[in-house]
Amino acid sequence: MTYHKSRLLGLLLLSLLICTGKVQAQELLTLEDAVRIALERNYDIKLASNDERIAENNVSRGNAGMLPAVTGTLNNTNTLQNNSQTQQNGDVREVSWGRGSNLNYGVGLTWTVFDGFRMFARYEQLQELEKLGEANLQQTVLTRVGDVISTYYELVQQQQQLRAYDTAVSLSRFRVELAQNRFQIGKAARLEVLNAQVDFNTDTTNLLRQQELYRNTKIRLNEIMARDVNTNFSVADGITIDDQLTLGQLSAQVEQQNPALKAAVLNRRIAELEAKQVRAGRLPTLGVTTGYSFSRNRAALGFSTLSTGNGLTYGVNASINLFNGFNQRRLEQNANIGINSAQLQLEQVNQSLNAQLASAYQTYLTNLTLVRLEENNQRIARQNLDITMEKYRLGSITTMEVRDAQLNYVNATVRYSNAQYLAKIGEVALKEIAGTLNL
């Protein structure tokens, strides 16, 4: 092996060792860990979880109006008054700053036992609202998990491109050194050295730009995971793509598992139960009351200076709406319009999901084809680069041809990583629409 060839291999090996050393010095963040951290910390997921818990807490018979209300009362008032009283026989009785008091306390119960079945519709509506909260939480989780997976594989893609740019820099550095050596012994013109230096500077600039993009994407992933945005880490090397997805299977999964579609169905049911509560206004309302009370009145002057009383009270009350200015009819009409709007929204969501699924599936198939094509292109470009560099070392090829082979390899590598990333993003999008996104 000649000196120059050994020098080239040495530079490439050193570049790989430097990259490997950087990766080993950082935390290796797996996709599973990234998703787990996001599920534990992401603010949108926490907020949606709180909303779901509120909806769960609201499901109670008391909140629906089925249970009685028991109220305890206490009232104690005291007075200091100057009193004067003239009796029938003309005698006058006077008291200066006489004390008086009035004490009342008791427990009362009121219970609406029938309200036109409104309470039953309300209770069922609360249950549906709980399910709606679960569907909204599921949608938030799917969206944020999709964000984590997409951003994670974006980093994998950028990491692969970093290697390509780093290889380009190493090759350009080798060209600069070789051109300088050839110039010193008179086998190359000064122009060859300058061209090699320009190419080296260009490749270094591209590498720096790619490193900046890589760091900023790390910050974005840390933000999604709701941890310190400056936390440094590395990601896995490869992208695994599920190429077995079928449109028929995905369509069936959308109908059964998509949380947006579930939410639309639940909203229609909630609107129907709201209309049922409105219609209850045409029926009578029946309630019962009972309670126990105690009272004590004390006066400084009068025929009775002390009186007390205690006992039970009970009763029944009933009411029915006979006429309220046609408001009952207006409310029922509005409730029916609400049902119609909920049905239209359901149809709109269903149509939108079907359109998204069909479009995303076509993109997915195209990207799978591009992955196979670009993989072959990269392999050919690598072989061409190896052959070109050997010819350049022997001096049987121009620097222009070397640069073309170098750029072809870098571009082929970038296109291949882009194709892999886009195919993975297409897979993630399809599974997110189907509601089956998992690891």
UniProtKB/TrEMBL annotation:
The keyword Signal applies. It comes from the Bacteria. SUPFAM superfamilies: Outer membrane efflux proteins (OEP). InterPro entries: OMP_efflux (IPR003423), TolC-like (IPR051906). GO terms for molecular function: efflux transmembrane transporter activity; porin activity. This is Outer membrane protein TolC. It comes from Rufibacter quisquiliarum. One of its GO terms (cellular component) is cell outer membrane. Belongs to the outer membrane factor (OMF) (TC 1.B.17) family. It is found in: Cell outer membrane. The keyword Transport applies. Residues 1-25 form the signal peptide. Keywords: Cell outer membrane, Membrane, Signal, Transmembrane, Transmembrane beta strand, Transport.
